[in-house]
Design brief:
Elements (H helix, E strand, L loop, with lengths): L3 E5 L10 E6 L12 E6 L2 E7 L14 H10 L4 E4 L42
Parallel strand pairs: 1-4, 1-5
Antiparallel strand pairs: 2-3, 3-4
């Protein structure tokens, strides 16, 4: 298995040129991941891929079970993760490529756990 994984975000539900070898779908201590983990080759290198929002894109940010996603990758031997993401804009005049330093943030991940340490440390042993 590959020790590197890519977690794709909005706009990256598939990796062009990725040659699929196996697909692993299983429940973790934290529930179901967003999508089965895909293992294969990209440019001759082994890696795993997980579309964060599912494929097709069906999970909104607050519904992504990031704990299950990362736990399954860990169980599969992943040691490094590259997570790709994108953000949307709320103002049409801010076109793609515009650099902006925000002074406010809208957190669409509210309503989900923010840590593995939720009072059930026995799960982590």
């Amino acid at each position: 298995m590959a020790s590197l994984a890519v977690i794709g975000g909005t706009g990256l539900a598939q990796l062009p040129g990725f040659e699929l070898a196996t697909k692993t779908a299983r429940e973790t201590l934290w529930g179901e991941p967003s999508h089965p983990v895909l293992a294969g080759q990209l440019g001759g290198k082994s890696l795993m891929f997980l579309p964060r929002h599912g494929n097709p894109h069906v999970l909104p940010p607050h519904a992504i079970n990031y704990r299950a996603n990362l736990w399954l990758l860990r169980e599969l031997g992943v040691e490094q993760v590259i997570a790709v993401n994108a953000v949307g804009g709320l103002r049409a005049e801010l076109q793609p490529g515009t650099l902006l330093v925000p002074d406010q943030i809208i957190d669409y991940t509210w309503g989900r756990e923010h840590t593995y340490f939720d009072g059930h440390s026995d799960r982590l042993e």
